Amino acid sequence: MSLKIISSGLLTTIQDLGRHGYQKEGIIVSGAMDSFALRAANVLVGNKETEAGIEVTLMGPKIKFEQQQLIAITGADLSPKIDGEPVKVWRPLFVEAGSILEFGSPRSGCRAYIAVAGGFDIPQVMGSSSTYLQAGLGGLHGKPLQAGDTLPCRTLPDTLEPFLRSIIQAQNKNSGAQTNWSVDSSLYFTYAEPQPIRVLKGPEYGLFSAQSQQDFWRMAYQVTSQSDRMGYRLRGTRLSLAEQTNILSSAVTFGTVQVPAEGYPIVLLADHQTTGGYPRIAQVITADFSKLAQLAPRNKLQFKEVTLEEAQSLYIRQEKSIEKIKGALQFKTSI
Amino acid sequence: MINLEKEQSKIPAVQLYPLGDAAVVVEFGNEISEQTHKQVRAFSAYLQQHPFLGLIEFVPAYTTVTVYYNPWVISERGNLNPYTKVTGFLQRMLPFVADEAENAAPRVVEIPVAYGGEHGPDLEFVAKINELSPEEVIALHTQQEYLVYMIGFAPGFPYLGGMNKRIAAPRKETPRLQIPAGSVGIAGEQTGIYPIQTPGGWQLIGCTPVPLFTPQGTSPSLLQAGDLVRFTAITEEAYKERKEQRHES
């Protein structure tokens, strides 16, 4: 079982939920930028949430399915088509052997995820299949997917056969057949400009000048084109410390908002370094990581403060929504 | 209601505070010192041996240990307050750390280095600005034991303390685009080793044939926070030999 990459797209990588446990050795987490979307894609095809999927960035790849597959596409709507026919996101899709999946113009968001039932058959490095681009490891040969690559897949689990047949019969067609139900999009989020991003104050918030503290909440910031999986460089009002302070290097994580001396904030993302020495003004809450991951260069965001209690209850709500999708799929596949 | 300000723990000078909704920082002091480092190390060792359900991983740094946790698991699927629960666990661990900080003996790791020549193109420069001969720079660099305060910046990259200030050198004005893996350099009053090929602005004085980062190994980073590093000078031939042995194995 395999997929063939016909064209690569802008940046198409294999990602799972990241390489955990090695940050104390300087090894970055990597993993999906929008992990909620990847988890949902996996759940929709009957996989474990932790399976690796394909992360697609803005301009999608062209992929040929060598055998029939059950797949799901989640996250951004980058106008996916199967054999030229538009298909919908956030639901299971059946693709026949020889079918071609391609993407059109981005309609909403920046990153889409493709999961295949059974998962990709890719060796793990340090417990994860995520592509770690800077060190050239994980994923497929440590690199983004390229034209000509063959991506091996595990076989479709037998338990999904009846589910697959029910999709095909209901649609009375083969390739591109999709369920008439999908994940309730209110579980995800809505797009806005500027996108409100909820944060907690960071450990060094108190070191910023009173003016900068005000500006941080009041002003919108724009994602610049110098943004990648490591972090978004933002443009907007410059921020400064009340007085020069030497900051000792300490851990940074996904969603840490740090401010280098030049004054423009950087939001760290999936490929963030493990430690940093810039003052951390804020920390994005986990429930808003999807919103953050779906911003593209030139999009605007505005930071909003929440309490730790609110942040953690939103975290728990998001976990419950994944459980809800799992429950719904179990019900649908058992018919 | 949880107080977001730094909270004082039962051990004097130790503070706990959140880094977002899924990490707690345990801070043992506010400046680099061997005493603070010992506490960081003892706490990390304790956590490694006594992980709790919902612990994802932890990252030791100069004065802090940042503990990443899964709020969903810690809270027993949303039934308890995750932050209260996790700080409770950590508070109860602190008294053990105070005892252990005195006892633990550090591991000494020897790093053979071919100094100068093509491996250390900036050795002459470092010697010149310090009014020393290249041999004196090597002698001063190999004389010291260096404490690994933390690993960060790149896989297996050690933040080393203890370099003799007589061999300090400013960073290069224009960073090199590619520094070979194993390069040993000086930047300001710090010395370090590049585990992987990266761009960088350090003055390069030598190179080690020993791999600092082995992705397939059980412990990918050769060095761990708390280790002591001792550099030894080796010849060009010994360097080549070690490199070849590595390729064969």
Report what the structure shows.
The complex is a heterodimer of chains A (335) and B (249). Chain A contains five helices and 21 strands. With 335 residues, chain A is an alpha+beta fold. Chain A has two domains: 2-184, no CATH class; 195-308, Cyclophilin-like (Cyclophilin, Beta Barrel). In chain A, the strands form four sheets. Chain A has a seven-stranded mixed barrel. A six-stranded antiparallel β-sheet of chain A has the order 7-6-9-4-1-11, with no helix packed on it. A six-stranded antiparallel β-sheet of chain A has the order 2-3-10-5-8-12. In chain A, a hairpin with a 2-residue loop joins β6 (80-82) and β7. In chain A, α1 (35-44) packs parallel to α5. Chain B is an alpha+beta fold. Chain B folds into two domains: 7-103, Gyrase A, domain 2; 108-248, Cyclophilin-like (Cyclophilin, Beta Barrel). Chain B is built from six helices and 14 strands. In chain B, the strands form three sheets. In chain B, strands 8-7-14-6-13-10-11 form a seven-stranded mixed β-sheet. Chain B has a five-stranded antiparallel β-sheet with strand order 1-2-3-5-4. Chain B has a two-stranded antiparallel ribbon with strand order 9-12. In chain B, α1 (34-49) packs across α3 (82-103) and α4 packs across α5. The longest helix of chain B is centred in the middle third of the chain and has 22 residues, at 82-103. The interface between A and B is large, with 44 and 54 residues. Chain A: It comes from Pontibacter diazotrophicus. Chain A: Pfam families: CT_A_B. Chain A: GO terms for molecular function: ATP binding; hydrolase activity.
